[in-house]
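Entry type: protein chain
Record version: 2
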Amino acid sequence: MKIRFILASLLLLSYSLLTVSIEDDVKCLEGIQNSIKDPDGRLSWSFTNTTVGAICRLNGVTCWNETDNRIISLTLSSMQLSGQLPESLHLCHSLQSLDLSENSLSGSIPVDLCKWLPYVVQLDLSNNHLSGPIPPQIVECKFLNKLILSNNKLSGSIPFEVSQLDRLKEFSVAGNDLSGTIPSDLARFPEESFDGNSGLCGKPLGRCGRFSGKDIGIIIAAGVLGALGSIILGSLIWWWFFVRVRK
């Protein structure tokens, strides 16, 4: 009897946890829908259908399988979405892939993003209007193998903590306003991953403290103009004292 009671209790607990998880995933999507501006109506999701797997058929939503409502992936790219990254993402507990690229999202990358999505494997926030620093807390996304933050307005340095993401296979911060030295462990990524940040230096870009071709051109031009100015000034002084005065 005791064994049956324990088994029944465990089954009831598992069912309760699953129910809560499903309810949270629905609330996650509702929060996204309510907090992001969607001019083209691409997120016109309806939650009236409460049958199993119903939310898995919504635009941009992928579930673990067709027999439950647990979300594994959100692909909301190129939808003209604007606003900030929604806090309701913390309710998508099982999310492993988030693609919000090619939109008009603004604001900063939330410091708690990895607490919201502790199991995220792929994160693509490229081609938006995100600003501010890359939070060092990104290291808490321990399972990341893809982190794409290119073509935003991110500033500051690349946190050393990013180099501690051991599983990272694909990485890009190109086309931002980042500065400082690239963490040495990120030198394994190609130059294209860092292009478009005028203040960045270190491998695989040029060495820190070394002048770029543009800088050298400016220095040469300034030297030539300075020399010409000196010649002209010297000629005027010579003319004044040795020609005009004698006359």
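Comment: The longest helix spans residues 2-35.
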